[in-house]
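Running log. JK asked me to keep both predictions on one page so they can be read side by side. First protein, sequence followed by its tokens:
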Amino acid sequence: MNEAETRAELIDPKLKACGWGVVEGTKVLREYHITLGKIQTGGIRAKKLTADYVLVYKGFKLAVVEAKSNEFEVGEGVMQAKLYTEKLQLNTTYSTNGREIYQIYMDTGEEALVTGYLSPEELWNKTFPKTNEPDADLVEAWR
């Protein structure tokens, strides 16, 4: 399967099963633009940084999910996942190929294969103290 098929057939159902996009106050942002791309010589921009998924609960961005085709190993997306999580100043990130899920906590350095994503409430309780201000547009959207 290519990455788009992996996302639609394997990753999206797992996120939904854990409550993402189902539980009230949750939102799954797909193809979330993190940066426009660094301006290079001649005024040309480098490639945009775009997270495959950003998990949002009650207006707070809580985690990044970096997806790869199920033909790749789960570790293929780890560096991207960490980079995107650092840029968004979040604590939790996942790399997945749809078959396996690799979870990373940036503040402790804890990394492990897991059987599923944290639910919105679990992720909220684990990371809320680490977040700053809610995204005003997202909070307004849930009112």
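And the second, directly underneath as requested:
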Amino acid sequence: MDTTLIPQQIAVERAKLTVWTAGSGPAVLLVHGFPDDHSVWRHQVPALVQAGYRVVVPDMRGCGESSMPRRVSDYRLAYQIEDLQTVITALGLDEVHLVGHDLGAVIAWQFAMAHPALVRSYAALSVGHPRAYATDGIKQKLMGWYAAVFQVRGLGELLMSGREWALGRRLLGNHPEVEHWARRLKAPGRLTAAINFYRANIGPLMLRRDYPPVTMPVMGVWSDGDRYLTESQMTRSEAMVSGGWRYHRVQGASHWLQLDQPEQVNRLLLDFMAAHPVR
């Protein structure tokens, strides 16, 4: 079975997204975070396609091969949420299994609440419900210190790329993926575009707000080597979900659990989606 991702351009508000697809069957929408692009899902795509799913993997605005709007405001959550809706509509899909990681999970939680009819199930990797994250206490605030640094234009870029990416390697835990990130983000404007999500959304990320219940089945997955997120901001998300909740802790993985423990993550995703087939 051919698992090769095929790109296409989809126009969204103020940007053009490169969206990669493979396979056929019920659709799975994979949403990456920072500082990633679609390739962070490279271990999941073959497993999902071989299991009979159609995989849809966008490079989010500013990332990968998608366009880079210049204004910070163009990276607001409202645009990112509607980007996903536009992708689903453009591909002629009725509903999707949604999977988000890192900032992709932030977007996906909001999308699931804004467009519940389009989401059959949601798997949140690493990042819990926005209210659980915002109210998790001082430990989580300290673990997310870099988001405050990213607010200062130039300083955030220095934190990532300074001393020929030595600073970024340290921030990112010397993860093997750093060399890929550095190559991608050295292109003119790419690093600033990637960081602009934080600059455009510091309020929604940090402030407590009221949200509608999450009405589809949700699976939260957190890894015990995560340097940026507490386990409690994920487990406390259960109280915000009315459509059914399950939780899994992945052992021996960094924040990038889908890269570090792909077989375990793939098994969790496939079991969860099989339990909630597309209607």
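Observation for JK regarding the second prediction: The longest strand covers residues 245-254.
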